[in-house]
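Fill in residues.
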């Protein structure tokens, strides 16, 4: 018993001696570091307590600015911007710019963050000036600054300036014997460039400057050979210039490369044939495209043309065969309408139901973010990517 007691006493003494040694000889925290930590946690506490003004003043007045604390300043500023407290973010980043002791590359980083603040606040002219400075002075942040500049000019619909900035974002390729394969980022820039030229062409088209518009559309197709919009605009100009064959050639290119957009080109296709060729030639063209693309829009157009020629029975048989092969709401609705709905209330009810289903279903969807709607946007309203929205194919689409 005595031995056990002695062992316990020695163990207790050893523990106490170790604790005392650690307490006496532990490294003392520098007062400056303690103040910095205190300021950081105080500002963060204000921010989390929904007191953004107090948080900003704490960071500006109490937290020193140096290389060690710069990430904290930037993180808090960006956090405030993400929370919608843009004024506070601006004050934090402006406070950093007033400190010339920071290295030049860090000041460029702060310039970029302040420009993002101004973009969030809608003060695009100030953001533009800051971003231009970063583009000219910083190799490290030039790419990000150009991306934001492009977004500003796109928002302001300054298409010539947007084109100039987008061209600077692409790697130089003209001097290479063989252009390198574009990566995903370059591909997005090229797609945006193609649509910028389309936007410019639309403005020129409204001014009846057909030659200049065609030049812009040639550039659009150069950067994106599958840009449906560019071909449709070129076909529109060809029709205005009384060149229906050229318009048809351009529209056939769309159908061959982007079958999902067949329903979009149908109105132009119809207009071209109204100025070129007869009804038989038009029907033959419709049947060929409908067979190749299985487009409900072209199938319905062909059936309606058959019916207008007095061959309603053939039109109905054609619709039934197409619907069996690839049923869509549009084809089902047309079959019901082609039948005599007055023969019974069941057909009339089905007709109304299909009409309601079609009216409630989205027609277009963005393959990038999944945004859907009933209107074709060349620029997705959700993810703000160009050329990502396409018509929905399948039983609920074309």
């Amino acid at each position: 018993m005595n031995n056990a007691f002695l062992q316990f006493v020695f163990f207790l003494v050893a523990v106490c001696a170790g604790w005392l040694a650690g307490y006496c000889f532990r490294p003392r925290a520098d007062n400056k570091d303690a103040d910095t930590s205190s300021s950081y946690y105080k500002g963060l506490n204000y921010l989390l307590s929904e007191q953004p003004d107090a948080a900003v003043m704490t960071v500006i007045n109490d937290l020193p600015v140096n290389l060690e604390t710069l990430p904290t300043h930037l993180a808090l500023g960006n956090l405030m911007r993400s929370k919608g407290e843009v004024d506070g973010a601006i004050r934090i980043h402006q406070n950093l710019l007033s400190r010339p002791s920071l290295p030049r590359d860090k000041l460029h980083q702060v310039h970029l963050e302040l420009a993002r603040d101004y973009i969030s606040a809608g003060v695009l002219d100030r953001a533009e000036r800051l971003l231009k400075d970063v583009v000219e002075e910083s190799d490290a942040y030039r790419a990000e600054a150009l991306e934001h500049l492009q977004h500003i000019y796109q928002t302001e619909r300054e298409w010539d300036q947007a084109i100039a900035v987008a061209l600077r974002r692409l790697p130089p390729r003209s001097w290479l014997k063989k252009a390198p394969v574009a990566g995903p980022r370059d591909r997005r820039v090229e797609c945006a460039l193609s649509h910028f030229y389309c936007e410019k062409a639309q403005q020129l088209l409204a001014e009846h400057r057909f030659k200049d518009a065609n030049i812009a559309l040639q550039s659009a197709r150069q950067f994106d050979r599958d840009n449906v919009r560019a071909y449709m605009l070129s076909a529109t100009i060809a029709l205005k210039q009384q060149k229906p064959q050229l318009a048809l050639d351009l529209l056939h290119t769309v159908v061959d490369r982007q079958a999902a957009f067949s329903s979009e080109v149908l109105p132009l296709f119809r207009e071209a044939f109204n100025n070129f060729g007869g009804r038989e030639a038009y029907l033959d063209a419709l049947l060929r495209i409908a067979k190749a693309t299985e487009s409900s829009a072209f199938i319905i157009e062909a059936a309606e043309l058959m019916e207008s020629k007095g061959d309603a029975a053939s039109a109905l048989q054609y619709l039934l065969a197409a619907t069996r092969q690839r049923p869509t709401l549009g084809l089902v609705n047309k079959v019901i309408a082609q039948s005599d709905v007055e023969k019974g209330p069941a057909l009339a009810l089905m007709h109304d139901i299909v009409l309601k289903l079609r009216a409630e279903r989205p027609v277009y969807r963005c393959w990038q973010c999944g945004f859907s709607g009933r209107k074709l946007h060349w620029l997705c309203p959700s993810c703000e990517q160009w050329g990502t929205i396409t018509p929905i194919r399948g039983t609920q689409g074309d």
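The beta strands are 364-366, 372-373, 389-391.
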